[in-house]
């Protein structure tokens, strides 16, 4: 205890100590901040220079390697006079293998005429503009609008040059190479500060070190500046903040250690207190609550110091602790990031296992105890706990779904994205924890359920918590009642397992329980996840509907006004205004238009009209950009009026043109002042943007997100459609039932089906009083239609969640293996046949599903690739047809292509086109930002090989686009008369391919969903089969075990008709025979024992009896010889007593004889005799002695058997006498005799059957087994040996004896004796 | 007593009468609140003023967040880039839309951002719909 307190105090004291140290350090830092900044500047500059030198060194080494490469020299020495492009594909591949520099670099070998010989790496650089390039030259070349490359030229012998290039600036996310290769990003990571790198000569300033930045010259090693890196120097405030953060991190460590130590101590103390006294319910509940409280305190303690998220920057660990991905404020931030949510899930599991341990121990300890202390109030208490944990889990899941930007339902195959996987794992853990906690509560209350339900106030109290929760959270519909019921049922089932002691930890960590737990948890979790996502989707749909109501797009308004301001403050406008001669050349506008990413920034806008006015409002000029990207310059003074004075305001003004040119369009217009560097207004820039319903290829590439684009919207006025967006509103009028429903409500959600496609549609009545809620019936109705989730989708999502569980299921299984191994349970000494069957089925089922999945996916992929290729082929044929249609007589197609403007051809065909001559791109149509990097400046080697070397007419090559999406590009050669490709036309159908791939993803998902069903069916069948197979075998095993233990049980029921059934039948027969043998053996043993005892008793009794009898006789003789007494009384007494003694001695002699007879029968004299005669003698003898009559009848005359006459007579006398004793006075004992066949398994053996039937009360059931046992009798007299002797006598002459009895009706003893032939 | 009720009625009428002329002023006040909250690094204003969903753009990454998540995202940005000074530069109200721009100066003097705000007027007042942090000029080294 003392040590605990000392260590806790020590750890706790480190927190303030570190704080004091921080104060001192910060004070020192503030004093020496200039020195620190200088040191930082020097260090940063040095790091950047060294890294840049390292990059250049790598590139130079690569260039030298190429220059000294024999293959390169060989290729340069070849005569390539006839070919526009030179290398063979083999050479290209060899070169690529030798000089592969990674995704952001390339190596190209040129001959001295500037022709490309061979190349390797990515294709972003155009052919060199200046030739020859000069020896050992370093330059920075602009690849496209998004990328710049550092390039080194190096001579290769006397006949060529090599160009090594590396991307050093890349601004477009998702395009390969990504911004990670950007030097600014690389150096920002290196220095820990923001770094900007500029390579533009015109903007590169001399290297300086200002107050806030340090500029580092990037030179080529010989004092020629290639660019400039500007590193921001941290301000004193930032330095102090970072220093404080370091100490804060240290304090968090001390705090965490102290908290962990205190937690461990309190945990141990709690356990000691709990186990100190005999377990009772109060202590158990307190211990469980204490464990929960301790774990909750630990969790929130971690949260308070942002542990461990504070050590991870947002981009680290795949954004695990980045709120950009997930952040919820629920319960003090237990889900403020995906990582925190996962930790919360782990804590939840720890808490549930801790509570489960307490409850299990209590239940195990109280098994034999009366449950009086578990009162009926436990049921309402358990209901409260179950409701609480289930609703808490539902709330956590709902917020995790809502407060996340992760796409939980993306069609990305079976494996979710890493962060989605983390969230699913966390929620699965939370589900399992919920079930275990609720199950523990249910287990405690289980004995009281019956009593609780019989008392209605208690039952009502038990229903109160869920009812209250549903009332409280009803409006948010956190969890539907049916799902709550599902949780409750599972909790009760788990409670049953806990109460029955069947939830043993080591057993639960086996494969099948783990898989079953994950499947059950996923099934319970998925509805909550889906409801959360559905709520999210509905929120967004409502938002979109509101925007549509406004007939404007919020984003468009915002972006258009921002764009206008950006244009007005641009350098180009400033320069145009400075000329003041109002004669701005057209190329200035074109340059300006080119510099503006207008279509990119303003979503959905397909046309823009920009006008520039001077300070007096006179138009200087302008341009128009249509949706297809065509720019038309408006000359000065034409097409524009003077800007009104009211519009010439110092602030930007902007408005939505609600009544655009047509009802189907929406416009945005605004005027912004253009100021010079001093802030003076030098003119105005007016812009008008208009969005049309016209769908263009560009419209699909820009603007809304994929999800937003998938929506269809429509506005209905008086039930008639007046405008719409998207393709899914075929109706021109509102359905009548929708109109009827909107009479009473402002909004409705409906699941609808259109042409077999399922949709979720939102209808809302809108108007000028949209917010007030007082709408008129004539108000327009806006409808938004989103794709609905169909059952196959559910299956796919469920499968993804279940598979996510394997990420923690597998480690848990491994832990279980280790635990079992340490306990000596592995390798298993015995296995069960059911387990083996089930395991085999699981293995086979999984393999089948995997093989089918892989094959199926291959088939789907091939079919989709085929579809893409065939569509590309059709596009290429259209290009050829168009060229052929335009061609003059005998004009070759390549000539037509060369004379036609590429843009007009592309517009005509509505395609993006690239044209290559040789390996180089020669011209291209206006393309989107992500198209050019895909198509590339250079033909891919595969296409080059197909078209130039193999002389195929077309080729299809895959290229990786944004975010790893793979596109197929079609290439078609336009050949000259000699069959040599002069031009190559390339076509890319990106949106179409995206749709096809999405369909493929969907089909694959459905396919795997179906496979999941198959797997479940296999597992179900396996379970049933294993049970059917293992059940009888298990019972058989148990039967054998009991037989081996000497116990015989009832016959095992035969439930199957197969070999197992036969086996069971054989076992039953064997058991029956064994039981009979055992019974006989036991009987013989008993008889032998009795015989021995009888012999001893007879011997011991007889020995004294003979002298006693002789003595009495001597005494009587002496009395007679002596004249006897004259005393009459004495004589009388003497004679009476001696007579009595003699009689008793005689009785004893008889008894002894009887014993003796039993022990040692007189020697048997077998003879053939008639049973009829024997029975008649017995009947005659007994008829006189008893009041009961004996009736004899015989069907067999004579019935000759071989037996001892006296012995047989004794048997029948005994049996008939017993019958007479059982029959009431005046009754009749009937003795019958008849002939039969069959004895001892010999069916032909003739037998005589003697039946002695009495009309007594029958033999009691519990003594029937003992009837033939020696020393058993129901009578008060006799030794109980009669029937035992009779049985032995009959069996000795190979007969059978037995009886049938019926209570209160009488008994029939039968004797079967073999007849002599 | 009658005068009292008259004054009371007038005061009530003035208080509750909707005035579109004031909506611009209201918007400016909201924009000012948000802007000033950035200086204190207090992102709670985001969750207070936002609608159910708000679009936030930081470090070039734009997403639609719930207000709870937007609060954390904004908080994380302000934690990385503490704001020393902020001022509203422009407020433009178009119908029920309001777009505004503020300039934020970082504690690190080399950092500055334009904060673009987009608000929409609803029955309950102005709702924040979009929050966009755009770095202002290059960090250094450029001329002009």
The amount of helix of chain B comes to 25-40%
Parts with pLDDT < 50 across at least 5 consecutive residues of chain B: 12-22, 138-144
Rounded Rg of chain A: 52 Å
What gap, in angstroms, lies between the N and C termini of chain A? 100 Å
Q: Tally the beta strands of chain A.
A: 31
Structural class assignment of chain A: alpha+beta
Mean pLDDT of chain B: 75
Tell me, briefly, the overall form of chain B: globular
User: How many helices of chain A in DSSP terms?
Assistant: 34
By secondary-structure content and strand pairing, the structural class of chain B works out as alpha+beta
Shape of chain A: elongated
Q: Describe the sheet with the most strands of chain B.
A: 6 strands, mixed
Report on the structure:
The complex is a heterodimer of chains A (1317) and B (144). By secondary structure, chain A is α+β, with helices and mostly antiparallel strands. The longest helix of chain A is centred in the last third of the chain and has 63 residues, at 1059-1121. Chain A is elongated. By secondary structure, chain B is of the alpha+beta class. Helix content of chain B is 38%, strand content 41%. Chain B contains four helices and six strands. Chain B has helices at 2-16, 20-39, 44-49, 67-80, and strands spanning 50-58, 61-66, 83-94, 97-106, 112-122, 125-135. Chain B has a six-stranded mixed β-sheet with strand order 2-1-6-5-4-3. In chain B, 44% of the residues are buried. Chains A and B meet through strand 6, strand 8, helix 6, helix 15 and helix 16 of A and strand 1, strand 2, helix 4, strand 3 and strand 4 of B.
How do the helices and strands line up, and which of them pair or pack?
The complex is a heterodimer of chains A (1317) and B (144).
Chain A lengths: L1 H30 L1 H35 L2 H7 L12 H10 L6 E7 L4 E6 L15 E6 L4 E10 L3 E11 L12 H9 L3 E4 L14 E7 L5 E8 L3 H41 L4 H24 L33 H28 L12 H25 L15 H28 L3 H6 L1 H18 L7 H19 L5 H4 L2 H39 L4 H15 L2 H9 L6 H10 L2 H4 L5 E8 L4 E7 L5 E4 L18 E5 L8 E10 L5 E11 L5 H5 L4 H4 L2 E6 L2 E6 L10 H9 L2 E8 L2 E9 L15 E7 L3 H32 L10 H54 L6 H7 L2 H8 L2 E6 L2 E5 L7 H4 L5 H9 L4 E7 L5 E10 L5 E8 L1 H55 L14 H63 L6 H32 L6 E5 H15 L3 E6 L5 E5 H18 L5 E12 L2 E12 L28 H11 L3 E7 L3 E9 L3
Parallel strand pairs in A: 26-28
Antiparallel strand pairs in A: 1-2, 1-5, 3-4, 4-5, 6-8, 7-8, 9-10, 9-14, 10-11, 12-13, 13-14, 15-16, 15-19, 17-18, 18-19, 20-21, 20-24, 22-23, 23-24, 25-27, 28-29, 29-31, 30-31
Chain B lengths: L1 H15 L3 H20 L4 H6 E9 L2 E6 H14 L2 E12 L2 E10 L5 E11 L2 E11 L9
Parallel strand pairs in B: 1-6
Antiparallel strand pairs in B: 1-2, 3-4, 4-5, 5-6
């Amino acid at each position: 205890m003392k040590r605990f307190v000392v260590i806790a105090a020590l750890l706790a004291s480190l927190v303030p100590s570190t704080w004091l140290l921080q104060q001192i350090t910060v004070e020192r830092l503030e004093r020496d901040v200039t020195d620190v900044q200088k040191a930082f500047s020097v260090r940063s500059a040095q790091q950047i220079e060294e890294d840049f030198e390292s990059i250049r060194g790598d590139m130079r080494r690569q260039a030298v390697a190429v220059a000294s490469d024999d293959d390169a020299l060989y290729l340069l020495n070849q005569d390539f006079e006839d070919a526009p492009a030179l290398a063979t594909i083999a050479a290209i591949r060899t070169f690529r293998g030798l000089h592969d520099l990674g995704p952001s670099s390339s190596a190209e070998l040129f001959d001295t005429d500037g022709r490309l010989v061979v190349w390797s790496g990515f294709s972003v650089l155009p052919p060199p503009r200046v030739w020859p390039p000069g020896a050992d030259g370093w330059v920075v070349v602009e690849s496209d609008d998004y990328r710049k490359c550092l390039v080194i030229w190096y001579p290769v012998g006397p006949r060529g040059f090599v160009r090594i290039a590396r991307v050093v600036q890349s601004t477009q996310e998702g395009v390969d190479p990504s911004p990670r290769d950007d030097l600014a990003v690389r150096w920002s990571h290196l220095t820990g500060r923001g770094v900007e790198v500029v390579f533009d000569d015109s903007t590169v300033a001399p290297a300086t070190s200002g107050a806030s930045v340090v500029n580092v010259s990037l030179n080529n090693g010989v004092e020629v500046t290639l660019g400039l890196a500007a590193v921001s120097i941290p301000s004193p405030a930032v330095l102090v903040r970072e220093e404080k953060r370091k100490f804060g991190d240290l304090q968090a460590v001390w705090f965490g250690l102290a908290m962990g130590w205190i937690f461990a101590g309190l945990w141990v103390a709690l356990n000691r207190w709990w186990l100190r006294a005999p377990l009772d319910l109060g202590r158990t509940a307190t211990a469980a609550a204490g464990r929960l409280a301790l774990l909750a305190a630990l969790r929130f303690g971690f949260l308070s110091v942002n542990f461990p998220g504070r050590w991870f920057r947002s981009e680290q660990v795949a954004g695990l602790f980045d709120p950009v991905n997930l952040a919820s404020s629920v319960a003090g931030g237990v889900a403020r990031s995906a990582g925190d949510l996962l930790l919360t899930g782990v804590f939840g599991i720890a808490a549930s296992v801790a509570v489960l341990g307490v409850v299990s121990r209590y239940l195990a300890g109280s098994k034999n105890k009366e449950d009086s202390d578990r009162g009926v109030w436990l049921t309402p208490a358990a209901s409260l706990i179950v409701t609480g944990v289930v609703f808490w889990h539902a709330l956590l899941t709902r917020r995790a779904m809502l407060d996340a930007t992760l796409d939980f339902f993306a069609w990305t195959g079976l494996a979710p994205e890493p962060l989605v996987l983390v969230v699913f794992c966390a929620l699965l853990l939370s589900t399992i924890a919920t079930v275990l906690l609720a199950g523990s509560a249910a287990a405690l209350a289980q004995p009281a359920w019956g009593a609780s339900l019989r008392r209605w106030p208690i039952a009502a109290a038990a229903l109160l918590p869920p009812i209250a929760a549903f009332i409280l959270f009803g409006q948010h519909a956190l969890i539907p009642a049916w799902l709550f019921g599902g949780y409750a049922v599972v909790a009760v089932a788990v409670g049953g397992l806990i109460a029955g002691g069947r939830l043993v930890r080591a057993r639960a960590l086996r494969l099948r329980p783990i898989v079953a737990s994950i499947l059950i948890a996923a099934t319970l979790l998925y509805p909550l996840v889906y409801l959360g996502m559905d709520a999210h989707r509905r929120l967004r749909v409502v938002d979109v509907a509101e925007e549509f109501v406004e007939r404007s797009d919020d984003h468009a308004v915002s972006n258009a006004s921002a764009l206008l301001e950006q244009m007005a403050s641009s350098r180009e406008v400033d320069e145009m205004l400075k000329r003041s001669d109002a004669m701005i050349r057209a190329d200035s506008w074109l340059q300006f238009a080119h510099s503006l990413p207008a279509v990119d920034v303003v979503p959905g806008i397909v046309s823009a009209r920009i006008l520039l006015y001077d300070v007096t409002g006179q138009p200087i000029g302008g341009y128009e950009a249509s949706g297809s990207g065509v720019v038309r310059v408006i000359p000065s003074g034409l097409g524009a009026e003077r800007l009104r004075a009211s519009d010439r305001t110092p602030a930007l003004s902007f408005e939505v043109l609600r009544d655009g040119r047509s009802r189907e369009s929406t416009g945005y217009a605004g005027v912004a002042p253009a100021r010079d560097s001093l802030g003076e207004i030098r003119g105005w820039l007016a812009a008008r943007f208009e969005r049309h319903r016209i769908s263009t290829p560009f419209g699909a590439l820009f603007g809304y997100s994929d999800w937003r684009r998938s929506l269809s919207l429509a506005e209905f006025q008086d039930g008639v459609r007046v405008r719409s967006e998207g393709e899914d509103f075929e109706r021109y009028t509102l359905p009548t039932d929708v109109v009827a429903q909107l009479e009473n409500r402002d909004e409705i959600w409906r699941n609808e089906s259109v042409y077999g496609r399922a949709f979720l549609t939102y209808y809302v009545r809108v108007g000028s009083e949209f917010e007030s809620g007082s709408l008129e019936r004539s108000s327009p109705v806006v409808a938004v239609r989103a794709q609905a989730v169909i059952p196959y989708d559910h299956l796919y999502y469920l499968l993804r969640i279940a598979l996510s569980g394997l990420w923690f299921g597998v480690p848990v299984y491994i832990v279980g293996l280790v635990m079992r191994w340490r306990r000596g349970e592995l390798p298993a000494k015995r296995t069960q046949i059911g387990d083996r069957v089930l395991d085999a089925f699981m293995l086979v089922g999984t393999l089948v599903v995997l093989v089918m999945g892989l094959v199926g996916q291959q088939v789907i992929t091939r079919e989709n690739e085929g579809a893409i290729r065939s569509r590309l082929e059709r596009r290429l044929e259209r290009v050829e047809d168009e060229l052929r249609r335009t061609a003059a007589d005998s004009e070759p197609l390549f000539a037509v292509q060369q004379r036609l403007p590429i843009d007009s051809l592309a517009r005509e065909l509505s395609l993006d086109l690239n044209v290559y001559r040789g390996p180089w791109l020669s011209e291209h149509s206006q393309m989107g930002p992500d198209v050019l990097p895909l198509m590339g400046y250079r033909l891919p080697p595969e296409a080059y090989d197909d078209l130039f070397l193999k002389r195929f007419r077309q080729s299809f090559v895959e290229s990786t686009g944004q975010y790893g999406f793979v596109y197929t590009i079609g290439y078609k050669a336009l050949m000259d008369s000699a069959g040599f490709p002069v031009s190559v036309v390339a076509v890319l159908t990106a949106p179409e391919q995206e749709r096809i791939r999405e369909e493929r993803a969907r089909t694959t998902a459905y396919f795997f969903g179906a496979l999941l069903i198959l797997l479940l069916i296999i597992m179900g069948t396996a379970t049933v089969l294993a049970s059917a197979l293992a059940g009888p075998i298990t019972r058989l095993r148990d039967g054998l075990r009991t037989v081996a233990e000497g116990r015989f049980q009832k016959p095992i029921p035969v439930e199957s008709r197969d070999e197992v059934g036969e086996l069971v039948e054989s076992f039953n027969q064997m058991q029956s025979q064994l039981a009979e043998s055992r019974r006989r053996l036991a009987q013989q043993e008993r008889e032998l024992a009795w015989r021995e005892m009888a012999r001893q008793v007879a011997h011991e009794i007889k020995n004294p009896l003979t002298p006693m009898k002789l003595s009495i006789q001597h005494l009587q003789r002496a009395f007679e010889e002596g004249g006897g007494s004259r005393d009459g009384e004495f004589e009388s007494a003497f004679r009476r007593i001696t007579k009595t003694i003699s009689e008793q001695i005689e009785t004893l002699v008889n008894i002894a004889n009887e014993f003796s007879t039993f022990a040692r029968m007189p020697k048997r004299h077998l003879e053939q005799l008639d049973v009829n005669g024997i029975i008649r003698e017995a009947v005659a003898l007994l008829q006189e002695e008893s009041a009961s009559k004996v009736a004899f009848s015989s069907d067999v005359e004579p019935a000759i058997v071989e037996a001892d006459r006296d012995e047989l007579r004794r048997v029948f006398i005994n049996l008939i006498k017993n019958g007479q004793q059982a029959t009431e006075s005046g009754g009749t004992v009937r003795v019958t005799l008849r002939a039969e066949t069959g004895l001892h398994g010999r069916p032909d053996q003739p037998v005589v059957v003697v039946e002695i039937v009495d009309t007594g009360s029958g033999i009691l059931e519990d003594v029937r087994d003992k009837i033939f046992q020696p020393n058993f009798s129901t009578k008060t007299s006799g030794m109980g040996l009669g029937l035992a002797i009779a049985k032995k006598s009959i069996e000795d002459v190979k007969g059978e004896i037995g009886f049938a009895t019926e209570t209160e009706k009488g008994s029939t003893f039968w004797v079967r004796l073999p007849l002599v032939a | 007593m009658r005068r009292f009720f008259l004054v009371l009625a007038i005061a009530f009428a003035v208080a509750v009468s909707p005035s579109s002329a004031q909506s611009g002023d209201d918007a400016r006040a909201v924009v000012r609140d948000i802007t000033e909250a950035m200086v204190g690094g207090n992102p709670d204003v985001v969750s207070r003023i936002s609608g159910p969903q708000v679009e936030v753009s930081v470090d070039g990454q734009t997403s639609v967040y719930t207000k709870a998540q937007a609060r954390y995202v904004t908080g994380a940005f302000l934690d990385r880039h503490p704001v020393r000074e902020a001022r509203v530069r422009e407020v433009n109200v178009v119908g029920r839309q309001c777009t505004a721009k503020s300039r934020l100066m970082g504690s690190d003097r080399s950092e500055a951002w334009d904060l673009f705000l987009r608000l929409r007027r609803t029955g309950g007042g102005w709702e924040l719909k979009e929050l966009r942090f755009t770095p202002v000029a290059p960090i250094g080294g450029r001329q002009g």
